[in-house]
């Protein structure tokens, strides 16, 4: 992955938009599953002896977290994020509610980069 500051070309925008959408969907799905797992499933399991919610959400969360990592890497590669940002975004999928925060800031960053590309191409 290139970490240089080379500008994003206008031709790359459709791919970036698609990668952003995929990342946003996965961040929300993984985030909701993790919140349900921690806020509902764990108390039911340890206080009520019922592990049905943990079973129903734990395994899908784990598998979909792997998909989230792939979508975050794809987006980060396209917009040339530094490795630290990618690592923080990846870690956000393991902390309840944090994936929503990471998704918000990632979306702001990508939209700002898209705006910069548009301004640069309009000025040319």
From TrEMBL:
Q: Where in the cell is it found?
A: Cell membrane
| Xref: PANTHER family | MEMBRANE PROTEIN, MEMBRANE PROTEIN-RELATED
- Give the species: Propioniciclava sinopodophylli
UniProt protein name: DUF3817 domain-containing protein
Grouped into one coarse class, the protein's main location is: membrane
- Tell me the classification of the organism that encodes this protein: Bacteria, Bacillati, Actinomycetota, Actinomycetes, Propionibacteriales
Which InterPro entries does the entry mention?
DUF3817_TM (IPR023845)
Q: Where is the DUF3817 domain?
A: 21-107
Question: Where are its TM segments located?
Answer: 25-46, 52-71, 83-102
Write down the membrane topology: Multi-pass membrane protein
- NCBIfam families registered for this protein in UniProt: integ_memb_HG (TIGR03954)
Determine if Cell membrane is one of this entry's keywords: yes
Entry GO CC: plasma membrane
Which UniProt keywords are listed? Cell membrane, Membrane, Transmembrane, Transmembrane helix
Give any Pfam family that matches: DUF3817
